[in-house]
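Weekly sync notes, structure subgroup
Attendees: PM, AL, DS (notes)

Item 1: joint prediction request from the bench team. They want all two components modeled as one assembly rather than separately. Inputs as received:
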Amino acid sequence: MSEPVIHTEQLTRKFGEFTAVDAISFSVGEGEVFGFLGANGAGKTTAMKMLTGLLLPTSGKAAVAGFDVFTETESIKKNIGYMSQRFSLYDDLTARENIRFFGGIYGLSSASIQEKSKALLSSLDLLPVADSRLSDLPLGWKQKLAFSVALLHEPKIVFLDEPTGGVDPMTRRRFWDMIYEAADRGVTVFVTTHYMDEAEYCDRVSIMVNGRIAALDTPTAMKDSFGVTTMDELFIRLVRPGAGEGI
Amino acid sequence: MTSAVEVKGVTKKFKTVTALSNVSLTVGKGELFGIIGADGAGKTTLFRILCTLMLADEGRAEVLGFDARKEYRNIRSRIGYMPGRFSLYTDLSVEENLKFFATVFNTTVEENYELIADIYTQLEPFKKRMAGQLSGGMKQKLALCCALIHRPDLLLLDEPTTGVDAVSRREFWQMLGRLKEQGITILVSTPYMDEASLCDRVAFLQDGTILAVNTPVGITGLFTAPLFAVRANEKHKLLTRLRSYPHAKSVYAFGSSVHYADHRPSASSEEIMRYLSESELQEITIERIEPGIEDTFMALMKTDDGSHHE
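Output from the run, pasted for the record:
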């Protein structure tokens, strides 16, 4: 395996007495689709903030895209892509304006933005609507554009924080087609989701419980080792041992 | 009066966007009724009209026997509303929020405590904490308590489980089940298809239009094509291969398998197996399955270009 795109050792973050992330160690390889699961409050967001250079760890080690999470946070920010359901694009800008805006944020030159903008709009079939406000576009198109914009500066890795929350089942599946295409091009995808069927679409998944990684493996191996048939069952067993039947 | 909510031909437009288009539905008293739809389907607009926070352009909405346009005062005191966005006071504590809402509705926390006891006991250890400092799951439980504290006849919950993890979602639905037993009518919206099966009846909403209203069993009965769960060593190749099969009606990834629907009523797994065996795919398994809510929703959905999905 080539150099991992994410590598952490005993990565820890405390808030006062509370340990939000408790000595997590894992690696993610190039072109891998890595699912980062856990219950609300398990420490996922804190871990992601550290990996994206937004929050300094308390102790441990980690490198993302080859940069240190303690000393090179600015380089990390420039070399990763990020997208979430809550924050992606500006609805009151046009598709073209969004591309220009985010291209500028990522420090691309005007010439490069112009070139990429053209290529992107045409490959997404958005040229006819490139100058209408984003709020007028169907959600599926917006999502495609948001994902492409997160990859505009050709990062090695893209962090997707619940990218499919609230999305209809068909758009959700189209979004995963895009994730696979990006992974085929060698982009590493780090994704969080509350949809357990989507956990099955990842190459490997980790499940965080109370700040620790309680399980990390391929979905198949993980299900086998716990003797369950679905990720849903597995998740419930890890997160709330002893819980009854339900959804 | 036996219905808790009666919506007839409701249309609501925002400039160029039609949020709701001729929507009609009836929610019976004591029912746990689900509105299933994605972001932008019109769920929130429907809830706002029912809460009397917004007026319909056309049509009529009746809530608990009162007209949503003229008798909004009667409605407001009898419903509990939990909006999709967290809307409690973040700079008040858990306890203070609850007390505030009780006072607004002219009651006390003590008076209806037994209704929320089950949920509130989980919040009790944090009662002095500011609402803004709670975790997602705790915020949602507090919001539910605040919506219940005046013992409403109808509970309107707009996407209470969005962004909530699978385990907390399950616990939330168990709470709804217990509230239903207390005789409270519940209208709840969700983008999660698996939650639909926990409702007495559901309505599928897409682009402001109701695609179907039925019991969960009745809904899946609308899916008539033979459906198979197919597995193979390489999921992506399997999807591509199945999509190019001339008899394919729909092909969708579903967790660890692929759901394949065939145009021919008499399609057999042997035939599909023969077709797949002619490729480099291995470890192929095919199993005939019953359609679920999500299969049916996708079959009923209209695609982006406006055509009905095939």
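Discussion: Chain B touches chain A through 44 residues (CB under 8 Å).
Action: AL to compare against the crosslinking data before next sync.
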